[in-house]
């Protein structure tokens, strides 16, 4: 079967260019909410370029945590229709960005091939300050062992290691994809974005470390804003203040981020007792994760 040709944005009775449009570009009317702004895009521009143009025109008004649909005004129907992704702009057209009003359900399915683990700032200088730090070290190490067994990439950051020390010795970083120093609170550094782009089919990030209300929260929100599904491991994340931790997890859960546990994550990743790695994962979880003071503060 021949490959399908990309859909083309075209309106009847319009030229390939337009008055005032630079050579090699196509005039497009960009509509958002009550606004409509004429602009232009290169001939053959696709979905991603249209999104970039919407952001350049309306970025200060677009809530990146919402889901949107791009629509094209179709003369044939006299109304807007949903725009498929495989298209190229060839003629003058009118498009709009529509926020979805419905609440989208996050299913939270995890598969090893589409998952990356993020280990955030599990450093020596935090040991005396973070509540139940020994427990989250233990669970974090269990998660990293599971990642090695299942071949899941791991990205590790260290907040200002020159002053706060390296990752604690109990955490075995053998085989991790990246260990990066940072001063930004979020783990979404340029190097991390490049690494994610190099891993085909990434859909989910399993996130754990410290502090829940700062680096974990800001990382989770940035990832969700980029369309990545985030799973925060509650028994492997903590803060100096249990109140900060509790309200951060509540806030994140309300945004559709999944708050889960280490055992739930590992068993969801194998999914079947006949999985070739099930026995190794089972050995990891034979002893339950510590039921520390974190339990009543989730």
UniProtKB/TrEMBL annotation:
Gene3D superfamilies hit by this protein: Isochorismatase-like
Signal peptide stretch: none
Superkingdom of source: Eukaryota
Cross-referenced Pfam families: Isochorismatase (PF00857)
Chain coiled-coil ranges: none
InterPro entries: Isochorismatase-like_dom (IPR000868), Isochorismatase-like_sf (IPR036380), Isochorismatase_domain (IPR050993)
Residue ranges of domain Isochorismatase-like in the record: 115-263
Family, per entry: Belongs to the isochorismatase family.
UniProt name for this protein: Isochorismatase domain-containing protein 1
Species annotation: Pongo abelii (Sumatran orangutan)
Taxonomic lineage from the root: Eukaryota, Metazoa, Chordata, Craniata, Vertebrata
Gene (UniProt): ISOC1
